[in-house]
Design brief:
alpha/beta; eight-stranded mixed β-sheet; three-stranded mixed β-sheet; 16 helices; about 15% strand; binds S-adenosyl-L-homocysteine
Length: about 450
């Protein structure tokens, strides 16, 4: 049988929520009756959302796919300043829980028809009277549409306790508005074949409720007299990596600095061994450190300011640093703020001035904010070796030991990141008569994110 709706109805309902989120940019969103978290998985990509919560009475359904909400490798490898926390609870919408009060948006998609009418009353009190969100989206089948559904006898799903006509839904919605101080817009998704729309309305009817007084109205009602109840059971929670977390910022910065320092060293070596070798005023003492010379050619093409600055740095480096260098060669160099004397530290290394890194690598300057910050952040990191005066990063001038590298790569024991997330998407087949819905586009991902990040950092 051909699907009646394209896109399938369940996707149209979720798309309706996503469009609302795009327009209204709520920060805290809770999806009631979240089932296998399909809507939440879509919402997590809208990074203006900072707290995303799912609640369902059926813990088995939630557990089935909840790890699909874990951050994926790119979230670790390229974290942004966005913040996102996800929490999933087992609990009933007929019970109160303080952790979901005062949100910007509550969604209840194809949920209320699974409740008895007495429980719908409790749902109204809990959602509109206790949770007091700024907005609520409620979708439920429109029974006026049922005669158009091929082969349907009775309700659309065996667990439905009722299916409302548009008049019944409107009457409930208006009562809620009067009682709890909301206004509602009645709409829907799933258009009838042309010509029949006006007679029967949408296949899924939707009420979009806004609290009178908006978000301020919402917060005003969160008085102390309201009881703090915790009736839900937490099943899963995760914080997405964010550059607001100083550990994450430090790791990304170090990774970037090591990458660029290595790259600039490569450029400099190329210059030294290529044509014009020796024409520079710089020298690289035997067994000691050299100053990076023409090391930001690529960036320079894009940034003239950087190029101008670079020439000064080269001079500076050529005059002053080589003298300091000789001293350092004898003394060893500073590692993580501590001077080390053992012979292994007297290896050849290349000195990449921090101000070169700062002015030539936009990401490094954006992440650190100032040269002083950059120095402070690098001093604290055991992977970075700074020169004695803290003004340059010292990069080993040796070939990478690949065996060692691989060993690191396989060592997951201390990665400190989320366990591997195995993700797969399947469709929620909420409506029996929608049983021929196609599968969600599978976004299969299997990976060990901590491992990838470590590997990247080591490079
Ligand atoms: N919202 C989803 C799934 C709807 S199916 C979607 O968009 O497709 C209805 C869901 O409501 C089921 O997962 C069911 O377990 C859940 N549910 C039923 N009664 C509930 C209650 N009292 N509290 C919370 N969830 C409930």
């Amino acid at each position: 049988m051909e699907p009646m709706f394209s896109p399938p109805l369940h996707r149209q309902r979720h798309q309706f929520v996503i469009d609302f989120v795009k327009r209204n940019k709520p920060k805290k969103v809770v999806d009631l009756g979240c089932s296998e978290c399909i809507l939440l998985k879509k919402l997590k990509f809208h990074r203006e959302v900072e707290l995303l919560v799912g609640v369902d009475i059926n813990g088995t359904k939630v557990r089935k796919k909840m790890y699909g909400l874990a951050p994926i490798s790119t979230d670790y490898l390229q974290p942004t300043y966005d913040q996102l926390r996800i929490e999933l609870y087992q609990g009933s919408v007929t019970h109160k829980d303080a952790r979901v009060r005062g949100f910007d948006l509550v969604t209840s998609i194809e949920l209320i028809e699974h409740l008895t009418l007495a429980d719908v009353e409790r749902f109204s009190e809990v959602v509109f009277g206790y949770m007091t969100p700024a907005a609520v989206i409620v979708s439920t089948p429109n029974s006026d549409f049922n005669p158009l559904l091929p082969g349907l006898a009775g309700f659309r799903h065996r667990d439905h306790k009722f299916e409302w006509t548009r008049a019944e839904f409107r009457s409930w919605a208006l009562k809620v508005c009067l009682e709890f101080g909301y206004e509602v817009e009645l709409t829907g998704v799933g258009q009838a074949p042309s010509g029949q729309q006006e007679g029967v309305g949408f296949c899924s009817q939707i009420g979009v409720f806004h609290r009178l007084g908006g978000r301020d109205g919402c917060h005003m009602s969160l008085g102390d007299e309201v009881e703090d109840v915790f009736s839900y059971t937490l099943l899963y929670s995760v914080n997405y990596p964010s550059l607001h977390d100083s550990n994450i910022l430090g790791r990304v910065l170090v990774s970037e600095v090591l990458y660029w320092a290595e790259k600039l060293k490569g450029k400099w070596k190329e210059e030294m061994t290529g044509e014009g070798n020796g024409a520079h005023t710089l020298r690289q003492p035997e067994g000691g450190e050299g100053c990076v010379s023409e090391r930001c050619t690529e960036v320079e093409e894009k940034q003239t300011a950087c190029g101008a600055e670079k020439r000064n740095l080269v001079e500076q480096c050529g005059k002053g640093a080589s003298e300091d260098q000789e001293e350092e060669d004898e003394e060893g160099f500073w590692t993580n703020g501590e001077k080390r004397q053992d012979s292994s530290t007297l290896r050849r290394s290349v000195s990449v001035p921090l101000d070169v890194l700062w002015s030539c690598c936009p990401k490094v300057s954006a992440l650190s904010g100032s040269l002083g910050n950059l120095r402070r952040l690098l001093m604290d990191d055991p992977q970075v070796k700074l020169s004695q005066d803290g003004a340059a990063v010292l990069v080993n001038d040796q070939e990478l030991d690949f065996e060692e590298e691989e060993e690191d790569h396989n060592d997951l024991g201390d990665s400190g990141y989320a366990e591997l997330g195995q993700r797969s998407h399947t469709a929620e087949q909420e409506e029996d008569w929608e049983a021929n819905v196609d599968l969600e586009d599978a976004a299969l991902f299997t990976g060990q994110v901590g491992d990838l990040f470590r590997f990247n950092k080591g490079n």
